[in-house]
Specification:
- It is a single chain.
- 63% of the residues lie in helices and 7% in strands.
- A 5-stranded parallel beta sheet has the order 2-1-3-4-5, sandwiched between helices.
- Helix 8 crosses helix 9.
């Protein structure tokens, strides 16, 4: 008679576990589940099975113990499966946040541009980061991108390089083109849909070599379907009027256009007009004279 009551107890406890397992599989998340509780139940069943074996009570009750244990183990499997799904979701959320970011990747002139402050000042609806490096050349740019930018998985990259490659361009402009193309391939390798803008270089003394280099960069941009931005025109841009227009749109609640990906040319317009008007480009250019 005692075995019947024990079996009834086990069946009552066991009936809830299949429902719990089904619920866990459908939920696809470990939130609200307790690993400690599941392990405690498993330990209890193992203790009961051990007691039955030690007492030589090899009957149908032992079968029910094993059946319940198997069902609880299914819940354990569901927990770890859901835990893995949760981690994957967190990873995807992190990537989604990073995918909204735009990174400025340039050399000496660009390092001084406070892109994060500018983005906040203009109330841009995406994150901006400056990963420029003093004196960065094309030869080192690919490695630098892999080590310092690739892990950020940006949605778009503004590339402003060439100032440190004048000697290379003078000696062998074909090699200059090859190194630039290899950099673009590296930027696209992680995400073929990543937007890229190539930005022209500014000469302190109006040297023709810069104009020739910019023609090569524009040809590369056209061939690789990248945006080309001529920052000579940044001297004519008015960042304050742009800021006032955006503030007006926010004030009247007309923010729908701001949810669309902003053209990289417009982003460059904001950055380099700021750089010109705040003497950043002029300061660096004066050092080169």
């Amino acid at each position: 008679m005692s075995s019947l009551f024990e079996t009834a107890m086990l069946i009552c406890f066991g009936l809830s576990w299949p429902l719990n397992a089904i619920k866990a599989f459908k939920a696809r998340t470990a939130k609200g589940s307790s690993l400690a509780f599941i392990l405690l139940i498993i330990t209890g069943y193992l203790a009961g099975i051990t007691a039955k074996i030690l007492n030589h009570q090899m009957n149908y009750v032992l079968v029910v113990y094993f059946l319940n244990l198997a069902i609880v183990m299914t819940n354990l499997f569901a927990y770890f499966r859901n835990k893995a799904l949760d981690k994957e979701k967190e990873k995807m959320v992190g990537i989604a946040e990073q995918n909204d970011s735009v990174i400025l990747f340039g050399g000496t002139k660009d390092k001084e541009i406070p892109v994060a402050e500018i983005a906040q000042d203009y109330e841009l609806n995406f994150k901006m980061m400056n990963r420029s490096v003093f004196g960065l050349s094309l030869k080192d740019a690919k490695k630098n991108f892999h080590e310092n930018i690739e892990k950020l998985n940006p949605e778009a990259v503004l590339i402003h390089l060439g100032e440190a490659d004048l000697d290379l361009f003078n000696r062998n402009n074909a090699e200059f083109d090859v190194q630039y193309l290899e950099l673009i391939d590296a930027v696209k390798a992680q995400n073929k849909n990543r937007r890229i803008a190539l930005i022209s270089n500014v000469s302190a003394d109006g040297s023709e070599i810069y104009a020739d280099m910019n023609r090569h960069i524009k040809a590369i941009a056209d061939s690789e379907k990248c945006t080309f931005v001529n920052i000579d025109n940044a001297k004519l841009w008015n960042p304050e009027s742009t800021k006032e227009l955006m503030a007006f749109m926010y004030d009247i609640g007309f923010d729908q256009p701001l949810k669309v990906k902003k053209p990289l040319g417009d982003i460059a317009e904001i950055l380099y007009s700021y750089a010109y008007q705040n003497g950043i480009l002029h300061y660096v250019e004066s050092q080169a004279v």
